[in-house]
Amino acid sequence: AKHTVSTNLTVNAGAALKGNNVTISSDSRIGSVANSDGGGGSLITLTGSVGTATGSNSSTINIGQDANIEALQDLTVLADQDSYVTADGESTGGGLGFNGEASASANLSFGVKQTIDGNLTAGGDLNVSNKVSNNADSRAEAYGGGLGASTTVRATSAIKRVGGFKGAEIILQNDADLTGGEVTIHSDIVRNRGNAWTNTTAGGAGGSARAFSTSTINSDNEVILQDGDNNTGYEYILIQAEYSDTDNFARSQERLYAI
Fold this sequence. Notes:
Blueprint (H helix, E strand, L loop, with lengths): L1 E10 L4 E4 L2 E20 L4 E18 L4 E4 L3 E20 L4 E18 L2 E4 L3 E20 L4 E12 L5 E6 L4 E27 L4 E10 L2 E6 L4 E14 L2 E12 L2
Parallel strand pairs: 1-4, 2-5, 3-6, 4-7, 5-8, 6-9, 7-10, 7-11, 8-12, 9-12, 10-13, 11-14, 12-15, 12-16
């Protein structure tokens, strides 16, 4: 299973927007799921299952130089991204010399980037934010029995950056001018979760059981104010880059029962 999405929103240089409440947003959500199941049983049996799920989710918001966006009350610029990939592989069987293998691979690439070089003005609150949630989950299982029965399971999960992205970014360029009562500039990776899980059982004299799990997470989260950027908050200004929740798990379990 493979899923690739790119969501892009642009306010060109010199454009003008005005309203009571103004919201500029990108909302990008993907899900990629792969399931594989294999089995068999007889004299000298080989079974294998492979589940691979890949997802790529990228989004941008660009507000060009001298674009004028004004809200009489609240102004919101939001990039909201939610991605998950799930892969399962399972193999079962039995017999003399049975060899069962299962593998699962879940690979997720993501990127969010906001570039602001215009004028944003709010009579009330001004909020520029990223909200990102990522989940990569892989599970592989194999069960077999018989004289010389062997099982091998592998699971890998990976969360990484899309090429050309750092992960999550908000960049206020040198001509950006932000004004509001409460000004918030917040890039939040709400959740990064990687999970790789394997479980295998083999039974029989001369057999073997092996399990391998690997889970990796690689991303950055940045807020950058370039020289010349101007921000005014009449009540307060909050500027924050945050990882709210990051969990990374790799678990392997193997059991061999032999005479």
